[in-house]
């Protein structure tokens, strides 16, 4: 449920898997101590809380807490099209679209789970912490005390920047000095409210914001490349806006919504007919919609990153690719030539048969098709042939995306590429474009989730059938509770969520992206994105990105491999840099300077100068900080932020100004 709340908050946070891990350990060991182990109780408490039980709980809880794209699209239909799906249809649709991805994952196991090269760097910290808790001694009294002290400290601290003194969420000396007088200062340095600015040099003391950058968990190389991208983003985004790139100078600096030629919100209801198709006659009067310059640049950078990632993988990881694809062995059920010790040890457990994954895949597609024909008043949300096409396209692209994630830990979004493809397949139809994202983009990510969990199970020797079962249970629970929470929040905060800018407390920027794409790319794809049209460069950026890594690779090949220049060129990850150039023009941005400082301190100074302390406490610290901040935010959301419909404003003060944004950088 906290993950659903974050979907409608300005901060783009997620529920920490490390927090789920620690809480599961604490509760599991406590239950073993309290529950009797004799008689019939032995079925509930057969022995000490062990590594395999712990892994199963972590997989199930993290699966349930993941926010499904289906839920976000259902919210967008409700907010912007007044299409309210039946609760059963909505829940089955969310669950079915997740299961389609799991079916695909079954085919890819021999390619993206069993081999050694598929090691999923982002999961190494999870595996290390699990093994340290169960193999190198339990979470002893000292470590437990450390966890709970930090948990309590951040719990009691986090409510201060979140509620009575929000200035601490984005503290900027430049904004304090300007006091909201100049728009340029707000755009470049502002960061306290939704879509206020890109937050240069703004410092946050709110862990709810800081944890978005996962500074205690991400490897230093990934963080450094993301920081390089952000610093380039400060320059590029600001320069493009003030240079009137994409003709966006008279629009707001940041927003994922659509605007008309005057800078007001685009009147999409005027150009969409009652059967949700383009009204060409009305379009001549209303005119074409426009993106903010920063949002257009962001989409362009995402597509550049996608193109660059493909070339990057082939240039830098060709040996692994050749091994993986040789003879197309990953399509076979067995993979006898895999020389991986984890895989060999797992062969003692029975696998989930391939026919189970195939049946799950086919049944899920059938349910998804049925739900798409069960819209209000018999509205067809997406035709069956299109669902099948985008599902199979997602299955193919999952091979490439999965290899990138398995070998580098970097997740690439293909949502803009899918939306552009759908725009030309379904011209003049906004809702099918929205659903193409669900079956084309979301399916690939659900595939990766199960593959990563299967690898986690392989590392910890959890039987594959148990991994599969807990994943299914987590998905069912998540679908029900996420939908219920979404309906509550949307019904109680409808006006704010539809506002193009949002507030410090609530923002619809996530679901607005789907709506903007459905109108701009769905209804008006040929008018806006065809060659020579206003935003033609956005789709073509995917092809441009294919060539960008080549000069860096050639320069590396010509250098002495031992030279600093060669090491520096190999250290750069161009897809990450390109992605993070367009990372900033969303939500709030007061945390990134803090992320940079904490990330370097943790992953460089502590890891190299205090390795013993780092190994013992770094990930426990991350879990405690994430957990305490997420619990208090969940409480505040219902107690005072209006998730239940009754918001309670804190009295205005120096740290909570009435007529200025919380960082005093923008007049309200």
Can you put this structure into words, describing what you see?
- This is OPT oligopeptide transporter protein-domain-containing protein.
- Belongs to the oligopeptide OPT transporter family.
- It is a multi-pass membrane protein.
- Pfam families: OPT.
- The chain crosses the membrane at residues 12-35, 55-80, 87-105, 111-133, 145-160, 224-244, 355-375, 387-412, 468-490, 535-556, 618-641.
- This protein has 668 residues and is mostly helical.
- It is 63% helix and 0% strand.
- The chain has 31 helices and no strands.
- The chain has helices at 2-7, 17-34, 51-65, 69-81, 87-107, 109-112, 124-134, 141-162, 173-178, 183-189, 207-210, 220-242, 268-271, 280-286, 293-316, 318-325, 341-346, 354-372, 384-408, 415-425, 430-460, 464-492, 494-498, 509-523, 525-529, 537-545, 549-558, 564-571, 574-581, 592-609, 611-639.
- α12 packs antiparallel against α30 and α19 runs parallel beside α21 (430-460).
- It is globular, with a radius of gyration of 25 Å.
Low-confidence parts: none
Q: Hey, roughly how much beta strand do the residues contain?
A: under 5%
Shape by Cα distribution: globular
Number of strands: 0
Number of contiguous helices? 31
Distance between the termini: 31 Å
Largest sheet: none
**Helix proportion of residues, in percent?**
55-70%
Rg, nearest Å: 25 Å
What is the SS-derived class?
mainly alpha
Query: What average pLDDT do the residues reach?
Result: 86
Structure summarized in a few sentences:
One of its GO terms (cellular component) is membrane. With 668 residues, this protein is mostly helical.
